[in-house]
Design brief:
69 residues; mainly alpha; 87% helix; elongated
């Protein structure tokens, strides 16, 4: 349940930021560049969290296999 709320918040924040940029007084090219940059930043943050989670899970599995707590 908690992960679902976090994902909902992230999607909402990205949608809000994207809409705000679309109404900003600048060229479409600049706006698209900003949106792309923001999306790439978020992608890298999420990918890093996923990698950390995978590593933590692998460590827990290894501990279980080796009989450590």
């Amino acid at each position: 349940m908690k992960g679902s709320n976090v994902l909902t918040f992230i999607v909402g924040a990205l949608a809000g930021a994207s809409i705000a940029m679309l109404f900003a007084p600048q060229s479409g090219k600049d706006t698209r560049k900003k949106i792309k940059g923001a999306m790439e930043d978020e992608y890298h943050k999420i990918a890093a969290k996923v990698c950390r989670g995978q590593q933590e899970l692998a460590d827990k599995i290894e501990e279980k296999i080796n009989g450590k707590k």
